[in-house]
Amino acid sequence: MSNLPPQNAVSPVTANWRGYLRIGSIVTETPGVKSFRLLPLSGDGPMPFTFVPGQFINVAFSIGGARMNRSYSISSSPTQRDYVDLTVKREPRGAVSRHIVDLLKVGDLIEAGGPVGKFTFDGTEAESIVLISAGVGITPMVSITRYLTERSWPGDIFFIYTCRTPADFIFADEVAALQQRNPRLHVAVTSTKAEGTDWKGPRGRLTKELLAQTVPDLASRRIHICGPPTMMEATKAILTELGIPPDQVKSELFGATKPSPAAAGTTAKATAAATGSLVTFSKNNKSAKIHDGQTVLELSEELAIGIENSCRVGTCGVCKVKMISGEVTMAVEDSLDADDKTNGIILACQAIPKSEITVEA
Ligand SMILES: Cc1cc2nc3c(=O)[nH]c(=O)nc-3n(C[C@H](O)[C@H](O)[C@H](O)COP(=O)(O)OP(=O)(O)OC[C@H]3O[C@@H](n4cnc5c(N)ncnc54)[C@H](O)[C@@H]3O)c2cc1C
Ligand code: FES
Predict the structure, then answer these.
(1) 295-304: per-residue pLDDT in tens?
(2) E strand or H helix at 33, and its extent?
(3) List of residues 6+ apart from 23 with CB closer than 8 A
(4) What is the predicted pLDDT for the residue at 257?
(5) Which residue, 361, 266, 261, 270, is CA-closest to 320?
(6) Which neighbouring-strand residues pair with 37?
(7) Which of 125, 269, 303, 313 gives a 20 to 30 Å CA spacing to 146?
(8) Can you list the positions of beta strands (E) in 135-215?
(9) Which of 301, 290, 292, 293 is nearest to 361 (CA)?
(10) Which of helix, strand or coil describes residue 134?
């Protein structure tokens, strides 16, 4: 325990916290999905960080000798200051989700960092909210709904969810209990594999008709979508068809298709001569020219620098590094806050050098 990072700063922080959390309890929600209640390392007292509903935390594990980072949305409400809940679906071949769901037990410590993310809603952004999710994409939506209900938020909440079988409806009891307490919570759940069950709700995938029927004046409302890639694409297509302006729609993709990290020296790019700007990794004392369109993270992997990463699409912030000199462009920089920018922090997975650069890695 002596090598653990400092814990529980006097005032809770709202970003860039890193440390260890203790598993206080584990609940099986549906087949293959469990919620993990995470407590401060000491086991009691307030959490060392606060968050906005919809945010996630990054967790890191050492599995089979490799360090792996993943993001998980917080499913509990920020009004609960003594814990956060993560709800994790076991992916059949997933490296980290299987480790979490199959092996973790009460009392285990989890290395974590955060909170992170801009896929948030605390009731100040709009007068009503439409939350559309599928599968385990329900987690940020439940956090938002719990929070708004606990705060007696006066706006309408339209909660639209797609599950495979009725038994896969995560938080079914919780959603029903919230509905009892909140007359402004309108719920529509559709099951895509309800054959042979007594499911009384809608069946099949989310349709334009179900959406229009559940949400009056849809075009005037703020809409959040979260789930796997196919569901996100289909839902966005429906919203486009219904004429919803894209700037009213916020989304968070859980199953990002991302390029696999390249092992050191194995990429095709590594075999062609690089002609781009020189990148120096100061801690490793290594420099190389970058290939056209290559990110600082990709070059670092060729050189076996070991910059940690997770989403590779600019949202999780795991690949943050300090740039000591030079200039980069970043297509996405969602996980950088104002302090990061002032301090020269860049996202290696997004950074394309505009000039010769030196990074602290
Ligand atoms: C912002 C954000 C929030 C998230 N919140 C949540 C959350 O609240 N709950 C949650 O459960 N997840 C959440 N996720 C997803 C989570 O981060 C992980 O991506 C997920 O748990 C899968 O990780 P893994 O290591 O188990 O799978 P990986 O090993 O990364 O595999 C990814 C996918 O590929 C498949 N796969 C792996 N190996 C193979 C193979 N050899 N052949 C074919 N397919 C293969 C796996 O089944 C899996 O579906 C979130 C993601 C993001 C970006
Ligand atoms: S790896 Fe997630 S922001 Fe770069």
Answers:
(1) 999 999 999 9
(2) strand 33-40
(3) 36, 37, 38, 39, 104, 105, 106, 107, 108, 109, 110
(4) 47
(5) 361
(6) 25, 85
(7) 313
(8) 156-163, 185-191
(9) 301
(10) strand
Strand 185-191 and strand 156-163: the pairing is parallel
Whether the CB of 349 sits within 6 Å of ligand 2: yes
d(CA 146, CA 7): 27
Asked whether the CA dihedral 70, 73, 74, 76 is positive or negative, the reply is negative
Write out pLDDT tens, residues 249-258.
999 888 654 4
CA of 222 to the centre of ligand 1 (A): 27
Percent of the chain having pLDDT more than 70?
A: 92
Q: Are 19 and 5 in contact (CB under 8 A)?
A: yes
Kindly report, residue by residue over 283-296, the tens digit of the pLDDT.
999 999 999 999 99
d(CA 131, CA 343): 35
Q: What single letter denotes the amino acid at residue 119?
A: F
More confident of the two residues 262 and 58: 58
Q: What is the mean pLDDT of residues 166-180?
A: 98
Q: Which of 57, 312, 359 to mutate to test the pocket of ligand 2 (most atoms within 8 A of CB)?
A: 312
* Nearest protein Cα to ligand 2, atom 3: 314
Q: How far apart are CA 315 and CA 307, in angstroms?
A: 16
**Alpha-carbon span 251 to 174, nearest angstrom:** 23
Ligand index nearest the alpha carbon of residue 118: 1
